[in-house]
Amino acid sequence: MIYRVRHVTEYRYVESVTTSHHDLHLLPRAVPGQTVIAESLTVNPTPAVRRDRLDWFANRATHLAIHERHDRLSVTSELEIEVEQPPPPETDVPWEVARDAVRSPSDPDARAAVELVLPSPRIGPSQAAYELAAPLFTRGRPLVEAARALMHLIHEEFTYDPAATDVSTSVDEVLGHGRGVCQDFAHVQIACLRSLGLPARYISGYLVTRPNGEPRMVGADASHAWLAVRLPDGSWLDLDPTNDVVPSHRHIAIAWGRDFGDVTPMRGVVLGGGQHDLHVGVDVTPLSEV
Prior knowledge:
By secondary structure, the protein is of the alpha+beta class. It has helices at about 95-100, 110-115, 125-135, 145-155, 170-175, 180-195, and strands at about 1-25, 35-45, 50-55, 60-65, 70-85, 160, 180, 200-205, 225-230, 235-240, 250-255, 265-270, 275-285.
């Protein structure tokens, strides 16, 4: 499938901003099965400095410095991208093998994955997460089967509620009241997997919620979030607990890291501005509908 994505972020300030600096994760990283046909990033007012780089996790990151006085900032990312249906993983390796693989001293890729087992700023150690996951990860159970069962449990037991949480809500708070959004559900499942010693990463991207002839999926008209767990062979199994699916051609990956904080679409520091209003809008359209 080929999609056209338009992501608009707009800040309106009560007072003028004299200087601002921003870090963006809006351009898609190189991912097997995704081919970028065209892309653009438009910023108004025009930044005095723009630097594009790869961050610690090899995501494409953009730094902006705006020195022009302004009371409105608009950032528009536009993509045309082809997404292929990934083949399902075919492995019945027990989950303990995947857990132990990251301890291999001879595999540098496995050693690097240790970072995704350790606590991160937004996903700390959680006894409640362990207690949720442990009954599903019985001795010798295949990792793919157990991880999908956990995804299904989170989907069934938790309620999608945009008013229940914000970006500062902890995993234990979400586990306590059982409500949240895609970011929260991804954080919960990552916490569960890490509590068992399994490497898991947070993925930020977009979701096609209204495809022709297919059931509607749950996701805000903004960035979507899911996760992936590392398999013993070094590949990754993507999981979307918000929709209880293994991500397919309807998921467009932009960046990944330890948690939401590593891949925030846009954040920054401003001098001046006072209070502000923020508007974010995302349109993902199959090219056949354009």
